[in-house]
Give the backbone structure.
Amino acid sequence: MSPRVALTLLAAGLASAGAAPAFAQEAADEPQVAGTLARWFTDSDHVSVRSLSGDWAWPLARNSALTFHYNNERVLIPAVSAPPGTQEAIDAITTASRPISGNAFADFVKQRNEVEGEYARGPAAVTYYVSSESDYLAQQVGGRWNRDFHQQSVNLSLGSSWGWDEIAPVQDDDTNTGDARKTTLHWNAVMTEVVSPSLLLRYGVEYNLVNGLQHNPYRNVYAGGTNVPERHPDTRQRRDAFVRVNQALPNRASVKLSYRLYNDDWGVTSHELGSRLSQYVTRGLSARWEYRWYTQTAADFFRDTYTSVSGIGGYLSGDYRLGELSSHLFGAALRADLEAFAPTRTFVRRMTLWVDLERYFNSNNYSANVVETGVDFRFP
Amino acid sequence: MNRMRLHVLALGAVLLALGVGGCATVPVKPWQRERLVDPIVAFKSEAREDARKMKTFEAREGSTGGVGGAGGGCACK
């Protein structure tokens, strides 16, 4: 199915839902919500990403709901200050992909558009996702089902998805990788429990089986005294288990703790610890502080330098994400529910505003700043 | 069986124990859950944000997951 056809079908589905307002009157107690978000990402390699996204959730009749998500991103990867094929040019390439062709001394800019729709009815939901950019088309269909147990104190959710990506690298003077495909089979099982009137617990396992092109088609690796295209295995099994705890505290505060253990058959094992502390500053206005710590081992075939063009077992990688790595993230956020500040203003009181600032850095001398701001609107 | 598999099995056993333990407790009544639906406590209020962050981390690190959902393509790789 082409992205144009898929988008048309999705738009038709959304339009038909919009043409049935009478059914919405019988909907469940969830309000119709529309939200928009602006996000700016900049890193120490001068890569920047500007995101503008919109989300819409519409409850429908017979315990069903429709959600729609759209995102437009503009990615800017700076000029490489060396001719194609030189070691300096290769080092200048960050994890963000860019071809080196013709004039590498100019900034490389690309746009990405992403659309996701979900239809949920009772305990089941189906989703469709498409992401399109100049050299990459990703599509995915998914489904999930959940059920309450133990007087609605325990919920089990099972989900699965199938993704298929079409990769069409643009002209590149170094690697000249041809068109390729990648598929991803995903499943997850997640349990959520109401442990006490102030404690929520969630834990789960996830599995991904990835087949196809999994290296950067634009990246070269210095090996055996020359530059050769990066080469990763075509298959990767990825699995993780996680646990999250949300505890309400006295004085209108909360703490959220999380841990994730990840492992794959390339040899990468990682641990992630997360924490968030939230506090109402005044009625309707809350502040949040966040810290995340992450560490991982290297993939079996990753080396800082390769002595042979055949690498390790036939594979070579210049991707620092497959090496040993640790990172930290600090964040602060403010969230204002305007109903508390303007309860009589029909329009304004339905809005929630928020802003989020983050600072990320890792052991590879890489750092990034993220600024997010958004507004959600609850319809009558 | 390697050490990593033992770790995964141990974590699975802990999670299973948590599940069994949860079912053994007295259920929290609906009218006792007011604090749990507060946006600063609930899981749902940060679901979209968590999904966005997972994509950012996927682009900078070698692992994925932790939010109970599926991944997809990303321009920032």
About this structure: Chain B touches chain A through 49 residues (CB under 8 Å). Confidence is low (pLDDT under 50) at residues 69-77 of chain B. The radius of gyration of chain B is 17 Å.
